[in-house]
Specification:
This protein has 585 residues and is α+β, with helices and mostly antiparallel strands. The protein has helices at residues 22-30, 117-124, 188-210, 224-236, 253-269, 287-298, 335-339, 352-361, 376-389, 395-405, 407-412, 431-438, 442-446, 449-458, 523-539, 549-562, 564-583; strands at residues 14-17, 34-37, 42-45, 53-61, 64-67, 70-71, 79-89, 93-98, 107-108, 112-114, 157-158, 163-168, 171-176, 216-219, 243-245, 279-284, 313-317, 321-325, 422-426. It is globular and about 65 Å long.
């Protein structure tokens, strides 16, 4: 089985069980855990400094930005944006409170809770191979991560977005903590109350981050999601206190548009690309070691690998910095309807039959790519059941809730490809904004009006400067629309790409280390090695005896010919199957 590699950044790994025994203790202590023995449970924590209440990850708690892992004096009273878990270990019970949208996943069974599925597999050593096929529905973003709440580790489930996990006596239970799942249609005034509350959430959170002792890098492009963040910074009056980030040397037309719009906005509102966080050195890990780290920490939950994920050389900064991104804004528009389930009637009542019909009718027509779908029957009932479990009465609501619980979480959680001194998070995760979105009729949800309305709350002119994709004109005729002094006009921006290219100034007498030449590594070749090794493990195991050798080889060949992205996804999936196989031996 792949070696367990603990997190070494803001996250602290933990495994809490009500079914402790000498075998589990011996295993987890050998892997580096500190033991917290309590009356009804035992907690294993991979950081000996942490006390009874601690933060794993980073986020805004009680209106202050905190970077983990760190102990807390008590359970926070308010939970803001971030990617984190707050863990509380009391004498007679425990509690895990994830960030508001559950971006940092947590897994639980009847007797245990953990932030590492790899640890669950090591302790339980029992795999449900059918559940591990849930990311084989198609070759789009829908299947680049888990799609069902039941994980490949038998008995362990993914906690739903917004849920808190409670260990009480010998029981482990979950309940909704952060989010409102009523989905009742809102009046115009109710909708705007939530928009204004959500805008206040974003301003409060970005202010807390800027007021912290960490440099704040902010991505800005020509898109709407990054402009939500930009707008919060402008509304807080803090645009001169962050470092903006845009690809300064565009390699295609889309990146050029991003650069023109982003630099035009930064020039118009004020701000800088020029500050630098001091690089004090570089870490060196082989690409092979980084691949093992990824396999352990991701453990088959997310299937997007890039060359930077396994890069052998990464910068180390004197002070950790926070990269604030616009990711998460996709939950405020019908993303799956736009990308995948394009012909679905969003207002149709969700039933097991209508969900199954939706899933079957939208599978790709490419026969070779459908090879994995021939195994859809193995996990079909579980996928339909979990779609039905998603909040909301209609197919449109279920699609949105599924996106929130799966794609949004795994795609925007902490990435291994980040620099070791950098922690990336999104601030668009506002329960008030989600309630505003969920309370709109389906026609309104599709037009992207939530992002527009939040931006104009920050600054009336902001959403009327150019985007990479234009606004939906139906926004201005909607009954939820408030008349604006700008209304349907598109305002002019003057691109200033040179401001993103200015040389960074180095203080006198300061010498930054020279970036070493990265050792050569063949990304495609490494994927080939992973595929070949894993293929042999899978085909020699009884766990995946239902997999046909010819089908597997056809899928591998198809992915290699289609694109490096598809090849990396298939390599990740097959490697995960092999790691699960090893878990049972």
């Amino acid at each position: 089985m792949v070696n367990f590699v603990p997190h070494d950044g803001p996250q602290a790994d933990y495994f809490i069980t009500t079914n402790d025994n000498s075998k589990t203790r011996e295993l987890l202590e050998a892997l580096g855990a500190t033991v917290h023995a309590n009356e009804n449970y035992t907690a294993y924590v991979w950081d000996s400094r942490l006390k009874d209440t601690f933060l794993s990850g980073a986020g805004v708690l009680d209106s202050n930005f905190r970077l983990g892992p760190t102990s807390l004096p008590r359970m926070p009273r308010s939970f803001g944006s971030g990617t984190y878990h707050v863990v509380q270990l009391l004498h007679d019970g425990a509690r895990v409170v994830p960030d508001t949208f559950g971006i940092l996943p947590v897994y639980y069974s009847d007797t245990a809770v953990t932030n590492r599925l790899h640890l669950a597999a090591l302790v339980e050593r029992e795999i449900d191979a059918h559940n591990s096929m849930s990311a084989t529905y198609d070759y789009s973003g829908f299947s680049f991560q888990f799609n069902t709440l039941h994980t490949p580790v038998r008995g362990f489930k993914l906690a739903e977005s917004g849920h808190v996990i409670i260990v009480d006596g010998a029981k482990v239970t979950t309940s909704q903590f952060h989010l409102d799942n009523s989905f009742e249609i809102l009046s115009k005034d109710e909708y705007w109350d939530l928009i204004e509350r959500g805008a206040e959430d974003l301003v409060r959170d970005i202010t807390a981050m800027v007021d912290s002792d960490y440099p704040i890098y902010t991505d800005i492009t020509g898109g709407k999601d990054s402009r939500l963040v930009f707008g919060a910074i402008v509304a807080a009056g803090r645009q001169k206190d962050v470092i903006f980030n845009t690809i300064a040397n565009p390699s295609n037309e889309g990146q050029k548009i991003d650069l023109d719009i982003a630099t035009g906005l930064v020039s118009r509102y004020g701000g800088t690309y020029n500050k630098a966080s001091s690089v004090i050195g570089y870490s060196h890990h082989s690409a092979a070691a980084n691949m093992i780290k990824r396999r352990s920490q991701v453990f088959g939950s997310y299937h997007w690998i890039t060359p930077s994920d396994i890069s052998p050389v990464r910068p180390l900064n004197k002070k950790p910095f926070i990269r604030v991104m616009g990711g998460g804004g996709e939950v405020y528009r019908s993303r799956w309807n736009y990308l995948l389930f394009t012909k679905t009637d969003l207002d149709q009542l969700a039933t097991p039959h209508s969900i199954l019909d939706m899933l079957i009718s939208h599978q790709p027509k490419d026969r070779t790519a459908q090879v994995a779908q021939d195994y859809f029957y193995l996990y079909r009932d579980q996928l339909v059941s979990d779609f039905m479990r998603m909040p909301g009465p209609t197919l449109g609501h279920k699609m949105d809730s599924h996106f929130l619980n799966f794609r949004n979480r795994f795609h925007f959680t902490q990435k291994q490809s980040n620099a070791e001194s950098m922690f990336g998070l999104s601030i668009a995760n506002s329960p008030a904004l989600l309630s505003a979105y969920r309370g709109l009729p389906s026609s309104e949800r599709q037009m992207g009006r939530v992002a527009y309305d939040v931006m104009r709350t920050f600054d009336e002119k902001l959403p009327h400067y150019p985007f990479d994709k234009p606004l939906n004109p139906k926004i201005f005729t909607s009954p939820y629309h408030r008349k604006s002094m700008v209304e349907e006009r598109e305002l002019t921006l003057v691109p200033k790409p040179e401001i993103a290219l200015r040389p960074r100034t180095v203080p006198p007498g300061v010498e930054f280390p020279t970036r070493p030449v990265s050792p050569d590594y063949d990304f495609s070749g490494i994927l080939d090695q992973e595929i070949e090794r894993s293929r042999d493990v899978i085909l020699s195991s009884t766990l995946y005896k239902f997999l046909n050798k010819a089908d597997l080889d056809n899928l591998i060949n198809w992915s290699s010919e289609r694109s490096i992205a598809q090849k990396s996804a298939i390599a990740s999936k097959i490697t995960a199957f092999a790691d699960y196989t090893d878990s049972t031996e």
